[in-house]
Amino acid sequence: MSEKENKFILGDNSDGYRRSADSTQPFELPPQRPAERKPQPKPKPVRPSARPSAAQPVRRKPQASASPRRKTGQAPNSGQPMSANEKRRLHNELRKKQRRRKQILTYIALALGVVAIAVILSLTVFFQINEITIKGDSPYTDEQIIGASGISLGENIIRCGADEVSGNLSKSLPYISSATVERSASGKVVITVKRAVPEWSFINGEQAVLIDKTGKVLEVGLPEIALEATILQGATVTYSVPGEEIVLGEDVSLSFVKELGAAFDEAGIDLLTTVNLSDTDYIQALYDGRYKLIIGSMSGIDVKLALAAKVIDRENEIDPNQHATLDLTVDNKVYFRPEENPDDYSGGEEETSAPAEENTDTQVTE
User: Is residue 60 assigned to a domain?
Assistant: First the structure.
């Protein structure tokens, strides 16, 4: 065999032998059929662990769309169906609420009924007045006070109003300024009265009128009763009924009289005999029938009367029977002038001379 024939080409051979390189027929691979895919085994279901790892996502079964949970007794939203249990629960809740309302209304009606019965019994059967006691100082008898009070034995004690009793007594019995009423469940009523004190008197024609510091008329009678209080001159009385407030003319108002009286009380000057108000800018007064006070206007009257009271106390210690004139018309000063003929004046409406000069009278300053 020649050297050319001994040369072979390496390659794959389906027949199990090798062919020479000089073969005229090219080598071809046999056609191959596509490989058949073997059926893959189905994957086994993986059970989710209690704690899924981040690498292994947990597949959850999609839940069906469910309606939001409703509270007990809550009606469903529009377009949202209710189950039979929810309908029954809602119906039961409504019935409970209705029963509760009925019970509350029943209890309220019973309570109102009990209160009404108690009020009726207390106003008709219980708490009747069985004793009336009068205390305090007054010129009236107990029978007069009880009769004017508006209450009587056997009357219900709850109807006995303290303000009403005080008003009845003050108007019906003018010399009673006020009254207090004390009541007890035992049916005992105690009325304590306070006596009214005459403060001013007016000469009104042939009659005299007495009033207290509030302006209430205490008595209208003979001119002699005017001596029971300080005689107020220069004021006209237009209305005076016992138990009611006095009405004065246009020359002097009741408020002016009250203010003047309060100033005298504040200074402690309570033994006034007369006060002349013919000219309210030149007020004059007579103290204890011995000291003539020339006050002037109401300007600074508190200081004026305080100085006058100080001078009067000092002079009474020196001579309790002397007569003098105290001029208070100068601010913060008092001019004291003894009177040699005290019978020449009475503190009334006569004309008074001007204040004496400083070098002839005793001057007292605050």
Answer: no
